[in-house]
Write a structure and sequence with these properties.
Order of helices and strands: HHHHHH
Strand content: under 5%
Number of helices: 6
């Protein structure tokens, strides 16, 4: 088995573990914004390696040469669109200007989505803590 196959299986396994733990866990813990932030950074580093190795448009031949490539491309676009449909209103609610974040998502895909989700989560956590402090002072 090649390293890329091992990586694909490892990624699928991590996704299943994450999805199941998300489905059965109660509310998120404080500081959870660090997880998408760290994954965004790690994926950015890996993506920089990919761009350096195969060029900035190396993804395009994979998505445009077969039916499966198209299917994966549309799947990624649909997932990003649905994510943005949920994240943009929440970003506005947290006082973020969504336009720069949407541009980041368009240019980087999941890297931008993870960073945007981390930022929203960070802001929500900060407001929750400041609200608790205000109640405690009252």
């Amino acid at each position: 088995m090649q390293i890329f196959e091992v990586a694909a299986f490892a990624g699928a396994f991590a996704f299943v573990v994450f999805a199941l733990s998300l489905a059965v866990s109660p509310s998120p813990k404080a500081g959870m914004w660090r997880i998408p932030a760290a994954i965004s950074f790690a994926f950015l580093v890996f993506s920089v390696y990919c761009v350096a190795s195969e060029g900035p448009t190396g993804f395009w031949p994979i998505h445009s040469r077969s039916v499966w490539g198209n299917q994966v491309w549309f799947d990624l676009l649909l997932a990003a669109s649905v994510s943005l449909a949920f994240l943009v209103p929440e970003a506005r609610k947290q006082g973020m200007n969504p336009l720069p974040w949407v541009v980041l998502v368009v240019l980087t895909g999941s890297i931008g989505l993870l960073a945007m989700a981390a930022r929203i989560s960070y802001l929500k956590e900060g407001k929750a803590h400041s609200g608790k402090d205000a109640v405690a002072r009252a």
